[in-house]
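Hey,

The postdoc asked me to send both predictions to you directly instead of through the lab channel. I've kept everything plain text so nothing gets mangled by the mail client. Protein one:
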Amino acid sequence: MPIHVPGKKFRNHRLLSKQKGKREVTALLSLTAMVDMFTVLVIFLLQNYNTEGLIVNIPKDLLLPRAEVIKELKPSIIVTISSSGILLDDFPIANFEEVKNQKDWMVQPLFVEAQKAIEKAKLKAETSPVMKEVRAALKPEEMAELENLEPWKKITVQAHKEIDFLTIKKILFTLTEAGAGEINFAVLQQPDMPQQ
């Protein structure tokens, strides 16, 4: 068999001569490889997406205390206590210095707004389509047990770690009087301590 110089073999080919020497390039896309790639991508994204817990916006000037034992926060009403003021769900309620210096335990503006927020959360929970389905599926004694949990009364308190305890106690007293059930504190998890 004779040895041909590369490139000259196809110049006079009868199929290529109709196209004036140009080759037609057909790119075949491997659908199986693409489906495999997208499957891996979807699994990666699903594993890295966290749907549990409560996402809390922490203001820049707020330094949360650290704790060794923590639990995940559930959706709730958020009260923020910082040196700039008292906020309820990111809305300013009272001035911090006024609350700190007052003799009365009841912080009246917070009391009124907390009651409104609890009532709004209760109305939202009672009218949600999911709760209607749950009520239809549960027995009366199970429903009574669910109502006793009262998830709309949950409140999360974010307090700067250097705020005095008396001011925090005034806030907690006011929230309890307004009808709060479970009060949790937002904290940062203590990093793992090296073993000695």
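Protein two:
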Amino acid sequence: MKKQTAKYNGTQKFILFCFFAIVLISVTITGLLLWKAFAWSRDAEEGDIPSTLTEVLPDSQDVKDTLSSILPGTGTKEPEADETEPETEPVPEEDVPDPHVLEQQREEWYLLLVNKWNPIDRDYSLDLVELRNGHAVDIRAYPDLQDMMDDARAEGLQPIICSSYRTNQRQRDLFKNQVDKYLALGLTEEEAEEQAAKWVAVPGTSEHQTGLAVDIVALDYQILDEGQEDTPEQKWLMENSYKYGYILRYPTEKSDLTGIHYEPWHYRYVGKEVAKEIYDLGICLEEYLMK
């Protein structure tokens, strides 16, 4: 008796072809999504940057706006190896102060601290001056900003402002867009929000809502990534911005304190005296206010 050999008919061959084609397409799409996730993770808060931006700032005026005084934070001392801890009742976890949180803000308007632990007051108000390109900044901080931009251009550089004051709604839209990108990759809502917060500030915690922060890029390199630090414009700003009262707000290796990854384009106004001290000591705003 002859042994029969199984053969695939035309329909079966077509089904097998479709199966392998689907597998190949799935692998390709997965690879593209992973690549996009990496690219998205390098995006900065704003994302899209206009190709041509110039700013003209009008005359200044005094604005009365003061905040309450600050109380310095307190630290805790770890017991040494040969020390015995005192017999005290444990402090409930909810009563332990967060070392990142200011009990009260400084009264100087230019030292307002806004980050993931210190949200902006709902009643916070400010007077804005609008730039010709549609951006806006706190009217009290713009004269020094204009001087800085003018002096940089006098050196033959081409810095441009790509982001400035944002309304709470604008910040909500930016954050939601970033969350949606991660949701599209299959993350849960909680996971997507956690990842998005690493690159876009949660509404109410962005310095851009204070009018004291600006993102500045080079005209010929309008990408918000670490490559920005290699442009002549950023090198000049990093060395000279403190002279005009501005600091590089999110320096490298300070993410644990600022809550934001390194951004070599984000500058914050703190006044000339404070800016020089922060620059000389190589610290960030959180360290200055909490010391």
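Summary for protein two, as requested: The beta strands are 128-130, 136-138, 159-163, 213-218, 246-250, 263-269.

Thanks,
C.
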